Amino acid sequence: MKIISFSHQKGGVGKSTLCFNVAAMLSSKSRTRIIDLDVQETATNLNFLREYNNLKPFDIQKANTNEQLLELFQCAEQEKLEYICVDCGGFDADVNRVAISLSDVIITPVSTKPFEIFGLNKFITILEEIEEDAHKPICTNVVMNNIHPSLKDIQVIQDLCASKPNKVKLAQSMIRSRASFVASSAVGASVFEKNFDLGQARKEIISICEELILYNL
User: Fold this and answer.
1) CA distances (Å), 72 to each of 20, 66, 112, 165, in order?
2) Disulfide check for 201: which of 26, 106, 153, 180 has CB 3.0–4.6 Å away?
3) Which residue, among 60, 116, 125, 67, has the nearest Cα to 90 in the 3D structure?
4) What's the pLDDT tens digit per position in 90-132?
5) SS3 content of the chain, % helix, strand, coil (to 5)
């Protein structure tokens, strides 16, 4: 079983949408479960929309405490699931830190907005604290997310990641701002369903999975 956490101490960066679509891609090939740690319960609510729109619901469980999270991990191990995608809340909390410390892959979506870059600096500090407590190396994969389709200059993010190479690695794959992500989420779907996408969004999600998960674990 491999644990993939989508984590950032700031909300509104697109963790839930990215987690939901990555889980959709992984579940098409392997037994995959989403664990929802976010108090906003975005992934859980998207699943309700799926049922309402006659789509097969994803396997989603919720956890509010460290004990609940560890129990869910243990159950998943016993059930021999291949992947667990953890949608961490957009805040700093013990349960999010536990998820991060136990993850095989950490993915942190970030755009080029200044306040998200400031937030990434804070998140790096949190990762350093988790590393000290867990007595193991902790490094996240920064994914440029929801960025303008024509944007090419990401020097600020590149410089930040280069300054902390043991804590953050910038993924080559990027997720561009596309209407298909908005349209699919409106009915609880992923971009892999109901012809919501002409191919670009799907290719980007597949690229993330191949770069950070499928060929990296």
Assistant:
1) 18, 10, 35, 32
2) 180
3) 116
4) 889 999 999 999 999 999 999 878 777 788 889 999 999 999 9
5) 45, 20, 35
Neighbours of 97 (CB within 10 A): 20
Distance CA 33, CA 103 (A): 14
| Distance, CA of 160 to CA of 170 (rounded, Å) | 9
What is the residue type of 163?
S
User: What's the CATH number of domain 2-214, 1.10.760.10, 3.10.450.50, 3.40.50.300, 3.90.1150.10?
Assistant: 3.40.50.300
CA distance 44 to 38: 9
Q: What is this structure's pTM?
A: 0.94
Q: What is the pLDDT averaged over residues 196-204?
A: 85
Mean pLDDT to the nearest integer, 153-160: 85
Query: C-alpha distances in angstroms, 70 versus 64, 131, 132?
Result: 11, 19, 20
